[in-house]
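WARN no homologs supplied; continuing
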Amino acid sequence: MANEYTVSSGAPLEDVVQTAYSKATELAFQPNLYFAQFAQGKKWDVRRGDPMPGDTVTFTIYNNLSPATTELSDEYSDVTRVPMTETQKSIALKEYGNVVTLTNKLRITAFDNIDLAAARVVGNNMGVSIDFISRAAYDAQIGSSYVTYAGGGSTPTGIGPSDMVTA
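OK structure emitted
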């Protein structure tokens, strides 16, 4: 005769059964970063030292050449020279950041790898923060030569439903 045990409402083992899920999914559903991809980085000269908040950094932006749409008349003809132009943009460095504090008790008693979770949370915060800062810098350039709006408008409000963005 087989022994059977049925868990019914109020049975002593009912409290042992818990709903479980993988904590790995918690950080998998983070927002996509869109604006940070348009930010430009700059490498530093080791001899000069690391830049500090408040230092001014100048970026050189090389303008594209106009498309060459006229064919050459024959193999002996030469192309016409065109000048290469650039624009410079100076910015002041600023420092941002968050920090978390972990205790030894938390590290010892936590079920998860709390150091790995903290690194992921801080790293995600850095990415989202950079994306927000990049978006604010992009939005501040309304009407400048750095932003082109669909339909040839100069502000976001000038974009109409029939304006299409094309590559």
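The two ends are 75 Å apart (CA to CA).
OK
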